[in-house]
């Protein structure tokens, strides 16, 4: 029986590419999303991948949503914690709401989603948890105190949980994408992108969502069974950790 993979934020951006790549690799995939019904319906119609709507920042909503996924597809073997948001603004203008929203989705989301599948993975002695952090969790980014803190938290989460999962056959790894050609990056002011970001990417271009999706497929595979607690950096050389 094909393994079951859940991709949070799996209908748009990097998650869109991950969901499709995992399906092509033979997994039964569920893609979750929080708000954009039109994009999710279109994604599902085009790919045949079922979609489930819940906010990863809400523990109760995740418990309900993950249980619906398991009812529909079976126990979760692979969890890709990809859902993420930005609320960029200099710290002196950052509101508590900006802070809470970003930490809630990008960091609390990892706790909420992973907690729901962890005991099952331990019992079955197999699991893959793949977290999508960011270059900006590694290096920090002007205007992203909330985002950088949440993404650095994702790296710490990974390193600690990997140690707990190892004996139970569960690997936990984190990918740090650089600037990838998605709506999120295209929302950065054009001038900032062209003058401050692109010139700092040694390969001279934005990354493609597929380039991150292929990293996920590898980390989910049996070939990656000895890799756990690792940080896979995919940023075109912009920051060498
Ligand atoms: N370093 C130092 N100073 C900077 C700076 C930087 N990187 N960026 C802006 N500043 C300075 C400006 O020069 C300006 O200074 P002066 O007032 O002396 O001229 C001051 O900060 C204020 O700048 P703005 O007027 O641009 O302020 P703003 O409030 O309009 O916008 C911002 C600030 C929201 C941070 C905007 O610059 C921005 O969006 N920057 C991009 C942030 C970014 O890279 N986000 C990544 C999004 S993609 C993503 O997150 C995915 C991923 O994982 C990679």
Features:
single chain; 241 residues; alpha/beta; Rossmann fold; seven-stranded parallel beta sheet; 9 helices; 7 strands; globular; binds acetoacetyl-coenzyme A
Written account of the structure:
With 241 residues, the protein is an alpha/beta fold. The chain has a single domain (4-234), classed as NAD(P)-binding Rossmann-like Domain (Rossmann fold). Helix content is 49%, strand content 15%. It has 9 helices and 7 strands; from the N terminus they run E-H-E-H-E-H-E-H-E-H-H-E-H-H-H-E. It has helices at residues 13-24, 37-47, 59-73, 96-124, 135-139, 145-165, 183-186, 190-197, 209-220; strands at residues 4-7, 28-33, 51-53, 78-81, 127-132, 170-177, 231-234. The chain has a 7-stranded parallel beta sheet with strand order 3-2-1-4-5-6-7, sandwiched between helices. Strand 1, helix 1 and strand 2 (28-33) form a beta-alpha-beta unit. Helix 1 (13-24) packs across helix 9 and helix 3 (59-73) packs parallel to helix 4 (96-124). It is globular. The mean pLDDT is 97. The structure holds acetoacetyl-coenzyme A. The site of acetoacetyl-coenzyme A (CAA) has 19 residues, from helix 5, helix 7 and helix 8.
What is the compact description of this entry?
49% of the residues lie in helices and 15% in strands. The chain is of the alpha/beta class and 241 residues long.
């Amino acid at each position: 029986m094909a393994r079951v993979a859940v991709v949070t934020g799996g209908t748009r951006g990097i998650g869109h590419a991950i969901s499709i790549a995992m399906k092509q690799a033979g997994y039964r995939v569920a893609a979750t999303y929080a708000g954009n019904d039109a994009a999710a319906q279109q994604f599902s119609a085009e790919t045949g991948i079922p979609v489930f709507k819940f906010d990863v920042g809400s523990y109760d909503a995740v418990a309900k949503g993950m249980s619906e996924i398991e009812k529909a597809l079976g126990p979760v073997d692979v969890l890709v914690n990809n859902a993420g948001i930005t609320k960029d603004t200099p710290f002196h203008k950052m509101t508590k709401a900006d802070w809470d929203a970003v930490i809630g989705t990008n960091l609390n989301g990892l706790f909420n989603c992973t907690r729901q599948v962890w005991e099952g993975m331990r019992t079955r002695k197999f699991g893959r948890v793949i977290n999508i952090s960011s270059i900006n969790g590694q290096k920090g980014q002007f205007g992203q105190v909330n985002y950088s803190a949440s993404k650095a938290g994702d790296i710490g989460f990974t390193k600690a949980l990997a140690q707990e999962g190892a004996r139970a056959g569960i690997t936990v790894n984190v990918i740090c994408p650089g600037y990838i050609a998605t709506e999120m990056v295209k929302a950065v002011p054009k001038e900032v992108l062209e003058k401050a970001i692109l010139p700092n990417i040694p390969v001279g271009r934005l990354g493609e969502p597929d380039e991150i999706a292929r990293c996920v497929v590898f980390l989910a595979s049996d070939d990656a069974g000895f890799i756990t607690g690792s940080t896979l950096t995919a940023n075109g050389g912009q920051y060498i950790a």
